[in-house]
Amino acid sequence: xxxILLVDDHPLFLDGVRAALTGATDLEVVGEAHDGAxxxxxxxxxxxxxxxxxxxxxxxxxxxxxSRILSTSADVRVLMMTMSADDDAVVAAMRAGxxxxxxxxxxxxxxxxxxxxxxxxxxxxxxxxxxxxxRFFSGLATGGGREAFPQLTEREREVLDLVARGLENRRIxxxxxxxDKTVRNHVSNILAKLGVxxxxxxxxxxxxxxxxx
Length: 213
Fold this sequence. Notes:
Layout lengths: L1 E6 L3 H11 L5 E7 L2 H11 L3 E5 L7 H11 L4 E6 L5 H9 L3 E4 L4 H12 L7 H16 L11 H11 L4 H8 L3 H15 L4 H10 L5
Parallel strand pairs: 1-2, 1-3, 3-4, 4-5
């Protein structure tokens, strides 16, 4: 029996996932969490085999929640749920230790196959994501001079550089001729893609990579 923890902040979506798992005699839902902090606490308490994790949560990102769960429970296997397989945060989640992802709206058979695959020790990647991961880790292994944080867009890298210099969002908006809201969105995306918990951790990572000078 594979024990599953569901993590999503939309009750109707959880109802659909629960219904999809009904009748699968080898799968058992042992708990539900509605935010990242709850997911971390329940994963530690329930020790599920699989965590079905939403990528976008109201407090922590799914990437950060995954990283924290796996830092204390390495045997747990995390399957991300995302609206788009092209989301850069999917790659960040894989780097954080997730074993694969399933697109929200996938059919029941696809969902069950993904859960069973990672529960058995496998991985569920699309060719595109697998290729991006391969190129990223190849660059790390060979020291091939890849630009810092290749998962970030050029604009996100600009924003991160200014964050690492100690600038607040309003000042960054003036420097780059952007709205405050756009800068906030960029910072949120940067934290998710780097798999970090907060701005100070992002600054530390950026300065270690040579940004912010």
